[in-house]
Amino acid sequence: MSEPSASSGQSELFKSTINEYLDNLPETVHLQLYRSPETCLAVFRLLPSLAKFYIMTMLFQDTAIPSTDLNRWIKSSSFNGSRNLSKIYQNDSLKRLKALNLLKETRRIFTHPQTGQTTQLPFVSLNPTFRQSFRNALTGSRDANEVVEDNNLESIETISVEFLDTYCLHRWESILHFMVGSETKELPSVGVLTLLRYSGLMELPSDREQREHLGDDYEFHPKLQQSSSIQMLKNLLITQNGFQFLLQDINSQIWTLLLQYLKMSEKLMMNPVEVLNFIFMLGSLELGQGYPVEPLSDTQKIMLDDLIDYGLIYTPSKTNKKIFYPTRLATTLTSEHTNFKTSAAAIDQEITNSKNSNNQGTIVVETNFKIYCYTSSPLQIAILNLFVHLKARFANMVTGVITRESVRRALINGITADQMINYLGSHAHPWMVKQAEDKLARKLELESSIGNAAGQRQIELEILPPTVVDQIKLWQLELDRIQTFKGYLYKDFSTDLEFEKLLTYGEEIGVIVWKDRARKRFFVTQEGNGQLLDYANRIIRGNS
Amino acid sequence: MDAIADRAFTESQTNPAHKLVDETPSLLAVVVDINPLEWRKLEKEQSVSLKQVVSSIIVMLNSHLSLNSSNHVALYIANSYSHGAQLIYPRTESSKSTRFLHTPGMYRQFRFIDGSIVDTIEHLLNEQPDTLLQLIGREQGKQHIKGTLAGAMSMALCHINKIQQSDELNALKSRLLVVSISDDSTLPYVSVMNTIFASQKMKISVDVCKLGPSSTFLQQAADATNGVYIYITQPEGLIQYLTTALFIDPMLRPIIVLPTDESIDFRASCFITNKVIDVGYVCSVCLCILSVIPEDEKCPTCHSKFDHNLITKLKRKPKVLPLKKKDKELGDKNGTATPESA
């Protein structure tokens, strides 16, 4: 049971992290990455819609196009507020394309046929490597060196999807159980524990002492070479980041770990291109189908062992690895958590739900801040215990109250109000969802009967009681009364015109944090400063 | 209470621009006209073959699927001579595609869809000749068999409706793309208009990719549903049209300028002769449009009897009259003449 508003927030969180990682890769790595069609496809899916559209328009065009052509697609005649927004949106999309080195800007010099004046016009074209691979992905023409041959595939027996589902969930939950410190029969492997420690989700008591000793600024960098024994790692304790991690949905959790894995693999001198390619390739494999290990590179074989530990991959025999099976955790990696399900996927979901019913759709929240959770899973109870004051536990249910103290405790642990609200929302009992939907339908009916179109758009699905949501947010506001932004202050303008010009431009691209018209100053975000400076230089040059 | 809650906490971290376009999955239904006679004509005139067009469409379907992992496609064919309107993908019966057309290692969803589509179309083309030869011999020069294109369009709308209904959260947005090659005389006016109204009501944009002679009805369909009508002048570059102008996702439509033709031919077609007319008669009971007055003086659609006196008046040849106006009869119950706007 995935709930739209809450889960979209979560998947956005994940998207921004993977996007950030991809953005910060150097251009050479990007070029290497784009040689693989699967990676191109995965990168393409992570882009905003408009960026996807731009790529499609340029994909089958071999020549560069004037960058003004890109602006022409955007409506400018719509009403004032939305125009600004669409411009900001376009800017964001283009920024992403440039950050990923997908879009290349060139300048061409044109001579006016009559006046003979030369002008420079910016042109854009798609990254040729990306264009070639992505075209190949779409048209199916491709080089002969394939990862998997179809003929070989048929000889490999398939494994039932249910088996893989239980396997991967078991694996993943055992990691989570270890994190919340519940009694488990089997410990996760040393590799997993090292990663948890490295990523700062968990720490050894000695690390904690060190951190407390050195103060908050201390950043933990464990030595990777130092081989830690399982006896030592068994004593790992969960950190603030670990608490936050637990509140994310499973897809974001996997991505968080994989990103940490990527960072760790760079330190271990593994080629990030091969690691990323392997991760993205997993997303395009078929569930239940076995794939031979042989064609993988050495780096990828090392990765295979690690991914088996996380439950992303299954191999029938531990010693003699010839065939691997991707699990559902792996194949859904590059697909976002979207609201829409095919009938087949819905059935699958049902199967996993019934087996794993303690994990989803169990929480009832009342307006009086009482919480009832129909679960017997120690994992979920432990997570709830992070921000709910639990009162009583029954065979299949726990009850508790959200109090100021319990929420404050969670906030101090670094869990945000949004995370709590999202968690409650995405795990809400189906009955609560249904009630909320009925309420929504009634409201919409009312608004449409009085013909209030603007009001209709504002109505949103409220699964949790608004009082509770508000109160949790208020409790968070109590803690952070000051918000900080890094950026630049613009002041001492020589003319009104200059100030107005820069301000309008800044507002158009959405980088202004604060402004004071009377004293002619405004504050710009760090990221937007470069763009604004460019513009300012252009104006000054234009005037002189 | 609720209203207060909403306004007090606007998400400061999330960029408002991203709310403008939400990333929801979408469904693309494509209807391809594969009327063999028309294709033969087109191949002669413009040197574009069905094979090229289908391969471009397959690439477009792949592109649509690549936008979002939850995106869906459906492909319908319309063929007036045999098979009629038919669903090609997704197949209803579980037919295991035996071979994969493209190289292995391709994204599995693409491979599956492409294989299934190519198999079916090839199968259709192979079995066509014998029956078709007879048809060509017999039917050429005679009246057209009335198009199944409208039928395929309504089937596609039904499919969209079904999928949207089964989607619990109603998040799926859909659009319909019609690849048409025949002219208007193969389209039944009433059914086309009905599909237009249906898609208008369902808020589904109808995009039209027009090869061959241009079509007023499909122009109207695109115009009424906020779709794109593109007349393809260079069929070799079809893929560029398909991935640019005809590739605007429903969620992008609010902010994108649609590259459609502004001047639309709003003329309707006569119910008897099937020709598009500038000025004609309208039955006052069922609003059916006529270019000639039928012999039996009955409406061909609703069979209501027209007033004989009025008809004789209408049939009267124009003659120079003394300055006197006679339009009080126009409000009468039976058979009135109303000029249609051109």
TrEMBL record, chain A:
Gene Ontology terms: cellular component: transcription factor TFIIH core complex; transcription factor TFIIH holo complex
Biological role stated in the UniProt entry: Component of the general transcription and DNA repair factor IIH (TFIIH) core complex which is involved in general and transcription-coupled nucleotide excision repair (NER) of damaged DNA. Component of the general transcription and DNA repair factor IIH (TFIIH) core complex, which is involved in general and transcription-coupled nucleotide excision repair (NER) of damaged DNA and, when complexed to TFIIK, in RNA transcription by RNA polymerase II. In NER, TFIIH acts by opening DNA around the lesion to allow the excision of the damaged oligonucleotide and its replacement by a new DNA fragment. In transcription, TFIIH has an essential role in transcription initiation.
An example Gene Ontology biological process: transcription by RNA polymerase II
Compartment list: Nucleus
Keywords: DNA damage, DNA repair, Nucleus, Transcription, Transcription regulation
UniProt record similarity statement: Belongs to the TFB2 family.
Location of the Transcription factor Tfb2 C-terminal domain: 470-536
GO MF, one example: double-stranded DNA binding
UniProt name for this protein: RNA polymerase II transcription factor B subunit 2
TrEMBL record, chain B:
Region (Disordered): 322-342
Localization per Swiss-Prot or TrEMBL: Nucleus
Coiled-coil annotated residue ranges, if any: none
Alphabetical UniProt keywords: DNA damage, DNA repair, Metal-binding, Nucleus, Transcription, Transcription regulation, Zinc, Zinc-finger
Keyword ATP-binding found: no
Cytoplasm keyword on record: no
Main location: nucleus
PANTHER family to which the protein is assigned, alphabetical: GENERAL TRANSCRIPTION FACTOR IIH SUBUNIT 3, TRANSCRIPTION INITIATION FACTOR IIH TFIIH , POLYPEPTIDE 3-RELATED
Subunit structure: Component of the 7-subunit TFIIH core complex composed of XPB/SSL2, XPD/RAD3, SSL1, TFB1, TFB2, TFB4 and TFB5, which is active in NER. The core complex associates with the 3-subunit CTD-kinase module TFIIK composed of CCL1, KIN28 and TFB3 to form the 10-subunit holoenzyme (holo-TFIIH) active in transcription.
Family: Belongs to the TFB4 family.
Purpose of the protein: Component of the general transcription and DNA repair factor IIH (TFIIH) core complex, which is involved in general and transcription-coupled nucleotide excision repair (NER) of damaged DNA and, when complexed to TFIIK, in RNA transcription by RNA polymerase II. In NER, TFIIH acts by opening DNA around the lesion to allow the excision of the damaged oligonucleotide and its replacement by a new DNA fragment. In transcription, TFIIH has an essential role in transcription initiation.
Protein name per Swiss-Prot or TrEMBL: General transcription and DNA repair factor IIH subunit TFB4
UniProt organism field: Pichia angusta
